[in-house]
Amino acid sequence: MNTQGQLCDICGRAKHSEQNHAGGRNHVAWFTMPFCREHHEQFHALLRTAGVNLEWTDDPVERIMRAFQATLVALWMLSEALKHRKETQ
pTM for the full model? Predict the structure, then answer.
């Protein structure tokens, strides 16, 4: 999903910014954050490394758990970006 005019929440770039389903499109589709392509790819790489499964499941508790885990990865990326900005000020 294109977010024309929005900036990546991680690096602030507008180029190729797209809405990232931070909770997983199959679990919490309404929770999105704009990421540039680079950070969107990094997000999914981190999910794979952490073993977060974004596939649909009929189990509502499992869907919430997967959404929570994906959201934690997105929030961790955001906290790392803020830490980096603070260090470079």
Answer: 0.85
pLDDT-derived band at 89, boundaries 50, 70, 90: confident
| Residue boundaries of the structural domains of the chain | 18-87
d(CA 65, CA 41): 22
Whole-number Å distance between alpha carbons of 52 and 65? 9
What contacts 29, CB < 8 A, 6 or more positions away?
Answer: 21, 23
